[in-house]
Amino acid sequence: MTPPGPGGRFGARLAEAVALHGPVCVGIDPHASLLAAWGLDDDVAGLERFSRTVVEALAGRVAALKPQAAFFERHGSRGVAVLETVIAEARAAGTLTIVDAKRGDIGSTMQAYADAFCGDSPLAGDAVTVSPYLGFGSLRPVLDTAAATGRGVFVLALTSNPEGAQVQHATGGDGRSVARAVAEAAAAENAGATPLGDVGLVVGATTGTAAREAGIDLAAVNGPLLAPGVGAQGATAGDLRDVFGDALPAVLAASSRDVLRAGPDVVALREAAERTAAQCRAALGS
Prior knowledge:
Belongs to the OMP decarboxylase family. Type 2 subfamily. With 286 residues, this protein is α/β, with parallel strands linked by helices. The protein has helices at residues 10-21, 32-37, 44-58, 69-73, 77-92, 107-118, 140-149, 165-168, 178-189, 210-213, 239-244, 257-260, 266-284; strands at residues 24-28, 64-67, 96-103, 127-130, 152-158, 199-203, 225-228, 251-255. The protein has an 8-stranded parallel β-barrel, surrounded by 7 helices. Helix 6 links the parallel strand 3 (96-103) and strand 4. The longest helix is centred in the last third of the chain and has 19 residues, at 266-284.
């Protein structure tokens, strides 16, 4: 049965978008430095001009847009209102949004986050990023709400920041790394789904051989693999092969500043996104 919500299961909709536009998600990250580079003030007006220009340029041309919630929240309620506008305008253009919120909590608080980002809320895109480091089971409210509304969830697994290894590579009593346990829990959520499940992982494009060293079978996750770090953070499209191996068909490469610095010209933004998508298609064999 097709779930209610924004139009069917997320994994299937993402697979269709990637087949049409290429395996790239463009972040909407209104850093103060990027606003300045675009000749905009670091205020709500600058935030709105920046964000809506990105949507105008790229909606309908990339597989997904990924607004980073923190850069909107730092402007207070009016900034959050801009995030709501971005989500609504992308949806109207038929483009998936992944709200990069990285929420993580327990019980009723996690259910409140689930309602905000996966329920009947103007902050609910097509998917949300979450943190499992209060235990994968703490994500149940988000997982269940997303499943009921046809949305996706991307769970932090292997991040590119050096501090992440302290937690993600730690091993439990069963000898598994924390990251491996997270990946296997996501795989269990996706069992039997085609072409992809709705529970994905965030695996940094700069993590090298970390997945193999941690004993993680990324291909077995059977869900989308969001790979931030292509471009300004140092990873090239070619690095994706080293990181993901047999899981390449599930990869959605995320690029933000490498595309955004081409703005504010709409045509230049589109050309930058097209170049990145072509490079990733070649690297991923898609």
